[in-house]
Q: What sequence folds into this?
């Protein structure tokens, strides 16, 4: 470059400085452009990695915006559900990826998933409570799902849903449950042998026994009876887990049923010198329930009250219509050991026993309340409790009356 | 029958578990009933009374099972286990028995099973067998008591 300007005159100092600045500016721009290029290359690389990650994930993945419109699905999901991404991107998830519950009832996305997630929650369906996905070809399979919100600067802009095919897990779970069922049945035969032969000896049919012999035989008999109840509980649980538990509801006199259960428990009540009082509202309507299973529920709850209330304590049973007259509520209040606050959340869990009662009573399977809750949940009823350690527990059991449209005056 | 008051009737017991079969027989006999035992359906249908066998009646395989069953006129009640030796179970037995007709159709049957499956209970009920006991749930005394009652009431109606 000649040191003269366009007019052929030498550059003034000002012009020279301007030129210098211009050169610097050009260099900066070039540098920025290069940086941008590097940056965008970085972004591209990151995107490629992300894509590869998403594509290689074994679980199905769906991204939706906050209206539930599908914006992305990964290849695993395409394979799982039989739709290609071209076919479903842009569609509403509600119409495309149809979910059902165990009994074929449709899962309402709006109520059960979207509204919860868009409010910031996370929805999880797992092995114990799976959803069933309806494929493009209408076949179904069990899935475990997690739905989480996508947050951008504190605002929810959509949600991510993962699908895991749990067909295998379900099969293993079923095999395990079937094994429990089979084993329990096999256990019953030798138990009957022990029971019946002991019974014969105790009845004196084969000769008179000494006092000690009777005492020992009674212990054997008691042990065997306990084993029978344990086997029965295991069978009930396996039936529930297999879904072969059939409820046969019929119009049932709840008060009479409770009275029978109290009578059955009389021996244990007397032994512990407990005061049991019952207040039943008069001429209650019938409820819709399976009497055998409901007896099992009341028996489980009442026997817990008996077992876990110290000698000379009290148990109060109240039976009355709910204020709206649509259901009957049984309230069982005891002055027992109570359930520790931190364990109250687990009380209906299979095989769970609270620490305080484990120390006091070795008998107990941790199955009773699980069975009770499962039966009541399947009977459109409600079972819940309030408890304070060392003060007592109150259990509530609510069941619908037969014809709630015409409650008695 | 002259021995009516002493002899409380005959019970056919079909049960595959030997120790249980033995104790059931002892208990029934102690209560004054005669007992015919079998461990399978096939055998129950081929029981032949040895006329001179007295209290204990032995079994042998006979082809014309149904004809012989007609001979067993003394049987007043049947104790039936559901799971049995061989391929036939209690349901098969009841089905064949009912199909056979005659006086066998009305013999009270007491199903005493290991299984508490409500579907099975229903199946028996459909075949007009309402007496269903889960072994581990009942004392021998109570089941035998019910059978005794059934035999008693049957005599009254005759």
A:
């Amino acid at each position: 470059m000649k040191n003269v300007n366009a007019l052929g005159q030498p550059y003034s100092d000002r012009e020279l400085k301007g030129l210098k600045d211009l050169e610097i500016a050009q260099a900066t721009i070039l540098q920025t452009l290069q940086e941008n290029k590097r940056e965008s290359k970085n972004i591209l690389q990151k995107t490629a990695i992300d894509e590869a990650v998403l594509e290689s994930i074994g679980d199905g993945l769906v991204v939706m915006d906050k209206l539930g419109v599908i914006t992305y699905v990964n290849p695993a999901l395409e394979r799982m559900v039989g739709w290609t991404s071209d076919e479903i991107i842009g569609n509403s998830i509600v119409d495309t990826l149809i979910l059902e519950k165990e009994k074929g009832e449709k899962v309402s996305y709006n109520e059960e998933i979207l509204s919860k997630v868009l409010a910031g929650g996370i929805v999880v369906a797992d092995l114990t409570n799976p959803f069933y996905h309806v494929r493009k070809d209408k076949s179904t399979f069990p899935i475990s799902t997690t739905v989480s919100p996508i947050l951008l600067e504190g605002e929810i802009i959509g949600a991510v849903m993962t699908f895991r095919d749990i067909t295998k897990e379900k099969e293993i779970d079923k095999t395990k449950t079937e094994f429990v069922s089979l084993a329990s049945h096999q256990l019953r035969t030798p138990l009957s042998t022990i029971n019946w032969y002991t019974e014969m000896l105790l009845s004196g049919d084969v000769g008179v026994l000494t006092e000690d012999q009777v005492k020992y035989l009674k212990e054997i008999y008691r042990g065997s009876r306990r084993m029978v109840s344990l086997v029965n509980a295991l069978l009930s649980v396996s039936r529930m887990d297999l879904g072969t538990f059939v409820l046969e509801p019929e119009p049932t006199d709840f008060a009479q049923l409770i009275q029978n259960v109290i009578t059955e428990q009389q021996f244990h009540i007397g032994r512990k010198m407990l005061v049991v009082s019952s207040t039943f509202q008069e001429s209650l309507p019938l409820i819709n329930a399976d009497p055998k299973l409901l007896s099992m529920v009341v028996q489980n709850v009442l026997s817990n009250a008996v077992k876990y209330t110290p000698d000379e304590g009290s148990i109060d049973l109240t039976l009355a219509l709910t204020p709206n007259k649509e259901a009957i509520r049984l309230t069982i209040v005891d002055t027992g050991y109570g359930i520790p606050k931190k364990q109250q959340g687990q009380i209906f869990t299979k095989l769970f026993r609270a620490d305080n009662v484990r120390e006091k009573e070795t008998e107990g399977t941790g199955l009773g309340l699980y069975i009770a809750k499962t039966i009541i949940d399947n009977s459109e009823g409600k079972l819940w409790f309030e408890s304070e350690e060392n003060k007592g527990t109150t259990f509530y059991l609510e069941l619908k009356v037969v014809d709630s449209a015409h409650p008695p005056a | 029958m002259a021995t009516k008051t002493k002899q409380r009737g005959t019970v056919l017991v079909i049960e595959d578990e030997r120790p249980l079969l033995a104790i059931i027989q002892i208990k029934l006999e102690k209560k004054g009933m005669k007992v015919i035992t079998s461990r399978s359906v096939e055998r129950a249908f081929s029981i032949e009374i040895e006329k001179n066998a007295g209290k204990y009646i032995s079994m042998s395989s006979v082809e014309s099972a149904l004809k012989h069953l007609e001979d067993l006129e003394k049987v007043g009640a049947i104790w039936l286990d559901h799971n049995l030796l061989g391929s036939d179970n209690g349901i098969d037995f009841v089905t064949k028995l009912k199909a056979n007709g005659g006086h066998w159709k009305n013999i009270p049957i007491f199903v005493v099973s290991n299984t508490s499956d409500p579907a099975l209970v229903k199946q028996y009920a459909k075949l007009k067998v309402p007496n269903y006991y889960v072994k581990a749930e009942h004392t021998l005394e109570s089941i035998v008591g019910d059978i005794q009652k059934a035999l008693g009431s049957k005599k009254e109606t005759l």
In short: Confidence is low (pLDDT under 50) at residues 1-7, 48-68 of chain B. The longest strand of chain B covers residues 75-80. DSSP finds six helices and five strands in chain B.
